[in-house]
Design a protein that fits this description.
By secondary structure, the chain is mostly helical. It has 1 helix and no strands.
C-alpha cells in the first residue's frame, strides 16, 4: 500500500452528513405534520372504540332479552 493513495479506510468513525441551510424549517414542518397525524389517529381510534362499544352494548342487551324472554314465552309463562 503506497503512501498518499486514494484508499478507503473502513471502520474508522462515522461519516457526517452536512445539513442544507434550510433544513431547520423542514424539520419543524415535519414535526408539525407528525404531531397533527398523531392527533388525528388518536381521535379516530377513540371514535371507533366508542362506536364499537355502543354497538356491543346494544347487541348484548338484545341477545340477553332474547335468551331470557324466549324460554319464558315458549313455556307459556306470558
Amino acid at each position: 500500500m503506497a503512501e498518499g493513495s486514494d484508499e478507503y479506510v473502513y471502520g474508522k468513525g462515522v461519516p457526517m452528513v452536512v445539513k442544507p441551510p434550510g433544513a431547520g424549517m423542514f424539520d419543524k414542518l415535519l414535526e408539525n405534520i407528525r404531531y397533527k397525524g398523531q392527533l388525528i389517529a388518536r381521535n379516530q381510534k377513540l371514535d371507533s372504540g366508542v362506536a364499537a362499544g355502543f354497538q356491543g352494548l346494544v347487541i348484548g342487551f338484545l341477545f340477553a332479552v332474547i335468551m331470557i324472554g324466549l324460554p319464558i314465552v315458549l313455556s307459556g309463562g306470558i
